[in-house]
Amino acid sequence: MLLTRTQRDSLFLIATACLLALGICAPFSGHDLQRGTQIGLGLCAVVYGLSVSSPEWSVNRPAAVGLALIMVLGLLSSAFAHQPLWALTEMALFICSGAIALAVISLRRNGGESIDSALMLIVLMLCVIKSVQYMYAVILAFGSGQRLLNLDLLLSGFSNKRFYGQFQTFTLPLLALPLLIARGTRPARAAVLALLCVWWLIAISGGTRGTWLGMAAAAAVLMWLGPWGRRWVAWQLAGVCGGLLLYGCLFMLVAHHSGNEIISAAGDRLTTSLSGRGPIWWQGWQMIAERPWLGFGPMHFADVANPIAAHPHQAILQWASEWGVPSALCVAILAGWGGWATVGLIRERALVATRADLLRLCLFAALVGALTQSMVDGVIVMPNSQVWLALVVGWLMALHVPRSPEPVALPLAAGVWRMTSVLAVGLLLYVVIRDVPHLEQARQSYLDGRGDHLQPRFWAQGVIALPKPRVDGF
């Protein structure tokens, strides 16, 4: 029996919620599991996209040309790369992200505000679960009787606390939405404010400076976008003050009274150091200078071995060094075009303040924060962050009110896209089947032979540089 459109929408939402929860909230979750759930969600999005046929799949011609140009340049870059299969795998990841974004666009435009409520419920659910896990870890830490209390050990679900911070950069702006909506009851708003304060407590204690920078940039932009933007900033400041108060009570007063010594305190992160980014940024510049037109190939920063990281922790340097400068310019133009259109719409509707307008404001703040953080961190690399970037972009695009009539559907482009998305997910599934049985062995071999820490990229051990052949006697 064929499923109705509503049933397919519901199944996709349930799959999204389950996969996000598995990748973020499971005690055993980490980079490799999150990569697996990302590919699983991409598969669901592609299947969902094949099952629906509607005008939501169409894009205007300039955007279609820009995206096609990026794909063509990516294919050329992959063809000349040292390891073409890994380059195509990186391309497949971004196509997979595009499939997720398009699925969200179609889902929301068909389901309307009920989809907004469902997606916000997923956001709140994830934040509540992670907050409960964190507070439970705090209670266990104080009750353990140990003198040293390492705040980094209170964070769970991510292989690095910076990846946790990236997730918070996407979700902190969204938690302000129930506080901006006047229809919420007083107890519900108080509960959301408490959650926002705890979420900021985790952001403060985690010490991810990229998250602080991203939220500061989002606040600076929203202050300029009208009265509701300033109200958003006011609620975030209330959350920051609440988080700081909780931090002081737990990790200063209670810790001092209990005789605990805090390790990795938030104050230790208040520095201007680059945390090792200088050398990898310089490597990115050198790669751009050497191959400016097509780059070294997608994912191929990881093919130039260095002792620090498999990506440059800077989105522009990464794209330009791997995909080439022309491709990076195309991406920047499309992103700037879309961002400016959203700014114009927010300012135009600054005094209307419908639920969709307030949601657009929060989503735009999340996007500004994430893009700012991507200038100093691997937001476009980590699997969970790639998923949330796709979700936020798709959600924001679905809310967009075009100034001109809807573009005419492009059947040929839609057909090419569907075929491309199927091939991309197929390649990703092949890589998973090929690599997963040997991941632990590969990690241990890398640690034993060349490094003292893992460098995440596609997998948690993300260096794809082939080992140099050994010559007997040397």
TrEMBL record:
Residues 199-331 form the O-antigen ligase-related domain. Keywords: Ligase, Membrane, Transmembrane, Transmembrane helix. The chain crosses the membrane at residues 35-51, 63-81, 87-107, 119-143, 163-181, 188-204, 233-255, 358-376, 408-433. Pfam families: Wzy_C. The keyword Coiled coil does not apply. GO terms for cellular component: membrane. It comes from the Bacteria. GO terms for molecular function: ligase activity. It is a multi-pass membrane protein. It is found in: Membrane. Its main location: membrane. This is O-antigen ligase. It comes from Pseudomonas trivialis.
